[in-house]
Design goal:
This protein is mainly alpha-helical. Helices cover about 65% and strands about 0% of the residues. The protein has two domains: about 60 residues, Arc Repressor Mutant, subunit A (Orthogonal Bundle), CATH 1.10.10; about 140 residues, Tetracycline Repressor, domain 2 (Orthogonal Bundle). The protein is flat and about 65 Å long. The mean pLDDT is about 90.
Length: about 230
């Protein structure tokens, strides 16, 4: 895709596409998310999008400068979906935990897109709102600004890091996912206790725990540390 986006007032198609729909940024992003889920990163081309929308590929240029511009819009959409419906409770720890779990869940819903989007910074509406919300929770809780910024950084990177890691696992073919889990039972459960006593002692626990994401526990550890630091500050 090339750098030739059409100005906002001229974007709307006067006629529906072959499929009877009027193009919009929202429709293109939704379609791109669906195609990425089906075909991975290779789906993010004007040709494939045009075919799925029933429009000429050049129509996409009316809304996005480039493939990367579209990817940033997809990233911002995932961030927006994570925030949809969230309401603050006034309990800073509960609020941060809910935000983190929402971010993780939003990316897991679209694992193929998460692999492309988790590391991007958009500077767009939903991301700006999320940064404002998280910093607001931290500053209102009483964290000094330098501490609030560092904690914001650690919180977001942890959330997105786990989101990308778990998305990569979910993006694997089902056979590969099952094979990876089976390793914990087929290999680790059979290690020699004389040479690997700690694995042997916890093999059953490992096999069970590896079926779940480690993010909720890691998030609680981060929040425990943050709470201890806030207590010390006060």
């Amino acid at each position: 895709m090339s750098e030739r986006v059409v100005p906002e007032p001229q974007r709307r198609r006067r006629r529906p596409t072959k499929q009877g729909v009027v193009l919009s940024q929202e429709l293109i992003v939704d379609t791109a998310l669906r195609l990425i889920g089906q075909h991975g990163a290779d789906a993010l081309t004007a040709r494939r999008l045009g075919a799925a929308l029933g429009a000429h590929p050049s129509a996409v240029y009316r809304y996005f400068h480039s493939t990367d511009d579209l990817l940033l819009a997809i990233t911002d959409e995932l961030i927006g979906r994570a925030q949809a419906g969230w309401q603050p409770t006034g309990d800073w720890r509960a609020d941060l935990r809910a935000i983190g779990l929402r971010i993780h869940s939003s990316y897991q819903t679209h694992p193929q897109a998460a692999l492309l989007a988790a590391h991007r910074t958009t500077g767009r509406t939903h991301e700006i709102a999320a940064v404002e919300t998280i910093l607001g929770v931290l500053r209102t809780a009483g964290f000094p600004d330098p501490e609030a910024v560092r904690l914001y950084h650690a919180f977001v990177d942890q959330s997105l890091g786990f989101a990308a890691l778990d998305a990569a696992a979910l993006a694997l073919p089902a056979v590969s996912q099952a094979a990876d889990l089976q390793v914990w039972q087929a290999s680790y459960a059979r290690v020699d206790a004389t040479t690997h006593p700690h694995i042997a002692a916890t093999a059953d626990l490992l096999a069970d725990d590896m079926r779940r994401s480690g993010y909720p526990y890691a998030l609680d550890l981060l929040l425990d540390a943050a709470e201890a630091r806030l207590t010390a500050i006060r």
